[in-house]
C-alpha cells in the first residue's frame, strides 16, 4: 500500500507516469513538483535519438548524463550481456577470485590507459571510483610514513560524485547545504573559467598563472606536509562544460610537483574520446597518479567504473598490504562479470570504429556550431573541445548578467519542443552528444538549438 498518497498528481498522467510519481524518489529533482507533475518517461532509443511515451523523438544532445557514448539501444551489447548472464550471472573479485570477463576487461583497459598506468581496480559508479581513489591516496600516504597528508584540494564548481565523502570533493553548494557537508579537510581552489572569473584584461595564460599562484598560497597556508592530493576533471562537466584556460594544467602541475602532491584526474566524463583524445589528461598534458573512469567505459549500458592506478600509488599500496596483510576495500559488485563483458565489448567497438579518429573528424563541426551561436544577443561565452561544450546565456553581454532560472526553463522547453535534449547547468546550455554522432547530426543538433534560442530570445527581447 502506498504510504505517500498523491492526490495532486495530474489526472492526465499515463498509468506508468502516475506509478512513478507516486513511488519513485528522483535524484536532482524538486520532490514536490515531481509528485504533482510526474516524470517524463523515455521508452526506447536508437542511435543518438530517444523516444518518450507519447512517441516524441529527441536528439539526445547530452548523451543522457554525458555517458551514452554509443547512443541508445544496442543488440550486440545485449547479446554479450545475455551470454554472461546465462553462463555465470555473478561472481565476485574478493580474495583473488576472478572471472574471464574481469581479467580481460582489466587487461584491455590497461592497454587503453596512459603509459605507466597498468593496474585497474573495478567499481560500479563514478562516485565509487572517486571514493576509492580518495582512500587509495590516504592509504598510499600512510604507507609512505606521511599519514598526516590527509587534506584534499578540489576546485570550485567541481563534480566528483555524491557519496558522503565524494560530495565533499564536489564543490557545488547544493551538494553541501542541507547535508551538513563538507567534512573538514576538503579545500576548494579557484574555478578555471576564464569568461567569468578572469580579471578585466587578464588573458588566459595570465589567468592560469594567477590560479596556480592562488593554489600555491593555499598549500603554503595549510602546510604542504598536510596536503594529500589535488583533484580535477580535465574539462569540468557538471560545473557547466568548462574548458580550462591555456596553460592551466601545466602551471597547476608545476605547483603540485614542487610540493609532492598527488594528482587525481576524474575522467568519468572526459575518458574515451570526449575531449578528442582517449583521455582528457592527454588533451591537457596531465600526468595523473590516479584516473577515475566510468560512463563511456561501458557506453553507460551497464553500471561499471574503474580506477586506473599509476606505479607510484600502486607501490604505496603494495607497501601497505605487505605491512597489513590485505587490501581491505571492495564492493560486492566490483568486477561484475556481465558489466565487465559489456565494457570489454564497448572498448572493442571503440577500436573497430576508430573512436578517436571519428571524434576528431566531427570536432571541427561541433566547435563551429558553438562558435556560430556566439553572435546571438544573449550568448556570452561559447566554448568547447572534442564533443563537449556549452554556451552561457546572459541577459546583458556587457555586464555578463546571468540568465535566471525562468529564462533557462523556457530554453529547456523550446529545445524539447524542437526535439532536442540539452543539459542545463545554471545559465549554461551544455552539449555532450554520443561520441557516435555523425557530421549531419552535429549540424542538425545546432540547427535545432539555434532555432530554440532564437525563439526564446525573440520573445524576451
Ligand atoms: N565524476 C564526474 C566528473 C561526474 O561527472 C560524475 C557523474 N556525473 C561522477 C564523478 C559521479 O558518477 P556517478 O553518478 O556514476 O556516481
Write up this protein.
The structure is a single chain. This protein is of the alpha/beta class. It folds into two domains: 40-73 and 355-460, Aspartate Aminotransferase, domain 1, CATH 3.90.1150; 77-353, Type I PLP-dependent aspartate aminotransferase-like (Major domain) (Aspartate Aminotransferase, domain 2, 3-Layer(aba) Sandwich), CATH 3.40.640. The protein has 17 helices and 16 strands. The protein has helices at residues 15-23, 31-37, 63-66, 75-87, 100-112, 126-143, 166-169, 173-176, 194-197, 204-222, 248-258, 280-283, 311-324, 337-353, 355-373, 405-417, 439-460; strands spanning 42-46, 49-52, 57-60, 119-123, 151-155, 186-189, 227-232, 262-266, 290-293, 305-309, 379-385, 388-396, 401-402, 420-421, 423-425, 428-431. The strands form three sheets. A seven-stranded mixed sheet has the order 4-10-9-8-7-5-6, sandwiched between helices. Strands 11, 12, 13, 15 and 16 form a five-stranded antiparallel sheet that branches. α4 (75-87) packs antiparallel against α14 and α6 crosses α13 (311-324). The radius of gyration is 22 Å and the shape is globular. The model is unreliable at 1-7 (pLDDT under 50). The protein binds 4'-deoxy-4'-aminopyridoxal-5'-phosphate. 4'-deoxy-4'-aminopyridoxal-5'-phosphate is lined by residues 65, 125-127, 130, 159-161, 233, 237-238, 266, 268-269, 294. Belongs to the class-III pyridoxal-phosphate-dependent aminotransferase family. One of its GO terms (molecular function) is pyridoxal phosphate binding. It comes from Xylophilus rhododendri. Keywords: Aminotransferase, Pyridoxal phosphate, Transferase. Its cofactor is pyridoxal 5'-phosphate.
